[in-house]
Design a protein that fits this description.
Pfam families: Arf. By secondary structure, this protein is an alpha/beta fold. The protein is about 35% helix and about 25% strand. The protein has a 16-stranded mixed sheet that branches.
Length: about 400
Amino acid sequence: MIYTGVEALDEMLGGGVPKGRSVFISLEPGVDGQGFMFSALKSACAMGKRCLVIAPFTTREAFLSDLAATPYRLDAIDRLRFLDSSDYDEIDARAVDEDAWRSSFDARIDRCCSEGGFDAVFIYCNRICDEIGTEETLKLFLSRCRGKKVNLFVEYLNLYDDDHLDDLIAAAPFDLSLSIGEGYGNLLFINHFRIHHAAWTPLPSRQIPFVVRDDGSLSPQIPKIVVTGPVDAGKTTFIQTASETWVSSDRLGMSGSPTTVAMDFGHPLVTCRGFEITLVGTPGQEHFGPIIAHLLTNATGVIFVVDGRCPDDLGRARQILNLVRAKSIPFVMAANKRDLPGMMSEDTIRRLLSLPPDAPVIPISALRREDTMAVIDRLIRLITREPLSE
């Protein structure tokens, strides 16, 4: 197995990319997503894998120099072999036609592979695609690597559209197809990746947001998890317990009254399964309904907190839950105060709230960090790995 080096992606894939599997990474023009390929290459080198990098657009020296000041600096390069622009230009200069170019290129690849005994091949394929066609290029390397049980990673700059990408995925059956695009919903400053297909593990095709830090590293995000529920259910306590520090509008003195709290905010970001997560808490009072609806806008997921001892509060809970379900947002039900007597059973809570059988209901104490993190962990798995309940 080769790790992608992006913890959240490796978690989704069940640990990484199994031996002999192929990965296709498609980038939209202008998106800063080269880190996915760099990260996998760095991981493979760090694991002691023998790697071949086919980079027709640059020289070996320039490639390594560009990575030297980034988190993807390659320190273990003794098992690294390049076919770079100098090799490509030599083939290009000698070829009299496309058939001759293809024959010469095949011979160079065969010689390199027979000498190297590689565990993984990393290809930047666009310049080769210009010579022999995109589908032909992808099929060429797929057949060679599969026959030798070598991992294949291909980065492709998609200058066309989603239909073109779909056609390529259908024509060249990679084991993992990943696209990198700009924006995430209405959040233009966040990029996203999408797993279109993973042969070894079932995953929904869903956009996953990420940002590129100043140092060039990738940081997958869950940019907004809303913590909501009836008044006094334990929402603020949940955020306070899960976050290293937190901000409450009550503490900021919006009116001095605890009944007019507008929002709680967990900061710095909570980290779970390789994702950085922002928690936003809503008020529970009925007259704050418009604020709750507004805070649910662009939410990636919802943690719905109820007092597990108070069936009378579940009427208000149903009203808020209807707002969540109307927006089709993934949610987890956290039944709080399990450390106190009088706790309702999960089945009772599920029945009173008319929840479907597969909707997660988790008894917790919002005072215990392991309980709050278990809820966040379950929601992350729901967002990234499972079909959503209606």
